[in-house]
Amino acid sequence: MQDLVGARVVAEMTRGEQDRIVERIKARFVNAKVVDRRVRPSHGYRAVHIIVKVQGRPVEIQVRTRLQDLWAQIVERLADEWGRGIRYGEPPLEPTRRLGQMTRQGFVDRVMELAEEVDVVERVAQLRAEYDRLSEALQARGQALSNPEEEEMAAVTARFEERERRIRALLEGLHNATASRRLGA
After folding, report:
1. What is the structure's pLDDT at 141?
2. Is the pLDDT of residue 157 over 60?
3. Which of 180, 171, 167, 185 is nearest to 75 (CA)?
């Protein structure tokens, strides 16, 4: 453990917005160190950590999107119930113990897969935001993309928005289930 004090910033945001928040925080501290767990995830965990010194002591500031935070809270609750090692890629306690149709290990594996799905959804959302900025810049110059290009982008966006809704609903359901400890001890 390197820090004894921490703070967390969580918001509905794109990765570009997350980067801007990180830069604003970093600009307020001399020698701030950034650890980008989106680039190098730790057993599914993604966020951006900024380690700063306050009165000579290390302080960690985590910046998470809402989906990153939901996922991390689920894993923390599972680790509290089924063993802290889950956070580090270790199997849960009693991995073959059943939880409905699935074993604990199967459940943990599915949660880890969801981390990858969250990553894809967030990357696509960031690309869509960049596309929208480009489209607005073209329109400001009196140019525009063709109708077929716009229609194709709208179709792709609709598919990924639906995927994001499903993933968000699944994460929120798992978050609520782990909060109410319906996962068994």
Report:
1. 85
2. yes
3. 171
Give the pairing of strands 48-54 and 33-36: antiparallel
On whether residue 85 sits in a domain, the answer given is yes
**Contact between 96 and 135 (Cβ < 8 Å):** no
46/71 Cα distance (integer angstroms): 9
Does 185 reside within a domain? no
Q: Is residue 109 part of a domain?
A: yes
Sign of CA dihedral 84, 102, 40, 175: negative
Residue located via tokens 């199967």: 106
Q: What range does the domain containing 48 cover? A: 5-67
Residue 148 tokens, joined? 């077929």
Tokens standing for 38? 């989106």
- Give the residue ranges of DSSP H helices in the chain: 15-26, 66-82, 104-140, 147-179
Tell me, yes or no, whether 56 and 87 share the same domain.
no
Q: Are residues 72 and 46 in the same domain?
A: no
pLDDT tens digits for range 88-122: 999 999 999 998 889 999 999 999 999 999 999 99
- pLDDT for 37-51, tens place per residue? 999 999 999 999 999
**What's this model's pTM, rounded to 2 decimal places?**
0.88
